[in-house]
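Page 37, continued from 36.
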């Protein structure tokens, strides 16, 4: 059974009133939704409320929901709309934003892609995070969605409401900038670490 077939089966089971299916959806996707929303605001209460409201809403409206074969994509699109609606409506304290003037995507080193713990890998990760933090806001968001939330380029385009080619171009430019940073910070003989790293985490 493919992931899409599995998601469709679970979603239809949830819509049919299966409590276990709803619990599976909740516990499997809550952490991804929470981590994503927290990249925009320090207000943990707001993030928790938005996610709880999302799950309550789909539970109440389950009989009227359309089918989906990509549950995480469905939930991400929904929570992102709610998050930006709340931020734009000033439903938060200014001090809870990383940037009180322009709420932006905040990518920090607390995110762990579980790449490894040896010295070379740790050095690679430090350079990677430093480089990612120097990217544009949309580039950072796409990098996060692709490598830490598991979305492909087409899915990212759907969540962000942009074209597939825009996502491809943005990611390509972001990765090009990251490679430049590695060339500057790593000895030539260590460039193999970079390519091995991207081979491990890239899933186009």
């Amino acid at each position: 059974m493919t992931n899409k077939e599995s998601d469709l089966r679970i979603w239809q089971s949830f819509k049919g009133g299966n409590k276990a299916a709803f619990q599976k959806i909740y516990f499997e996707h809550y952490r991804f939704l929470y981590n994503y929303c927290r990249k925009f605001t320090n207000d943990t209460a707001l993030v928790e409320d938005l996610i709880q409201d999302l799950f309550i809403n789909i539970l109440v409206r389950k009989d009227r929901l359309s089918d989906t074969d990509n549950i995480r994509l469905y939930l991400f699109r929904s929570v992102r709309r709610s998050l930006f609606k709340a931020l734009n409506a000033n439903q938060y304290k200014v001090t809870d934003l990383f940037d009180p003037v322009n709420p932006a995507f905040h990518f920090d080193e607390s995110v762990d892609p579980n790449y490894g713990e040896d010295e070379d890998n740790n050095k690679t990760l430090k350079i990677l995070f430093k480089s990612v933090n120097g990217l544009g806001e949309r580039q950072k968001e796409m990098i996060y969605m692709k490598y830490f939330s598991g979305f492909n380029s087409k899915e990212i385009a759907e969540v962000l409401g942009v074209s597939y080619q825009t996502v491809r171009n943005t990611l390509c430019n972001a990765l090009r900038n990251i490679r430049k940073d590695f060339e500057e910070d790593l000895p030539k003989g260590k460039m193999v670490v970079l390519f091995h790293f991207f081979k491990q985490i890239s899933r186009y």
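The chain has two domains: 3-96, 119-201. Flag for discussion at group meeting. DSSP finds nine helices and no strands in the chain.
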